[in-house]
Amino acid sequence: MKLNNVIKRLSTVGRFLATTVFCVSAIAFVWQGAFFSNTAAMANPATNLIATADQVKDKTSEDAGRAKGFIEDTKDKVKETANKNAERVDQATDNGSILERKAKTDAKTIEKRADEDAARTKEAVDNTKNVIERTVDSIKDAFN
């Protein structure tokens, strides 16, 4: 008889412990859910991100414009140098010599290549700017 009485008391203590663990875990889940359901109390990072995204796009456009200006200046300096070299050869040689003609054709070739290189570089700057702007837009859309 005493064995039955002990088992009965252990069963009661076990039920009490199980109920206590269940209640404590329910309180913990409700408590944690209350903190995460009120997102208005948290700082809203999307607003800051959108402002930063617009700033990035503006800065990208500004830097692309500067890069294009630098490319154009470089192209003009290359052309100017090629023409100066052709003029120096022209002054140093007799009229109509082979060296004079070669210098003039070289200057034209250099000018042509400078134009082509500048166009390719400007296109690469535009492509890079567009990629950055698309990336910023997609990140901005992901947070909206």
Please outline the helices and strands.
Blueprint lengths: L1 H36 L7 H48 L5 H46 L1
Helix pairs in contact: 2-3
Name the descriptors:
single chain, 144 residues, mainly alpha, 2 domains
The Cα radius of gyration reads: 38 Å
- How helical, in percent, are the residues? over 70%
The string of secondary-structure elements, in order, is: HHH
Beta fraction: under 5%
Structural class: mainly alpha
Overall average residue pLDDT: 80
Number of strands: 0
Low-confidence sequence ranges? none
Number of domains: 2
Number of helices: 3
Largest sheet: none
Q: Any idea what the shape is?
A: rod-shaped
Terminal CA distance: 70 Å
Structure description:
The chain is mostly helical and 144 residues long. It folds into two domains: 1-42; 44-143. The protein has helices at 2-37, 45-92, 98-143. Helix 2 packs antiparallel against helix 3. The protein starts with a helix and ends with a helix. The mean pLDDT is 80.
Short description, anyone?
The chain is mainly alpha-helical and 144 residues long. Helix content is 90%, strand content 0%. The chain has two domains: 1-42; 44-143.
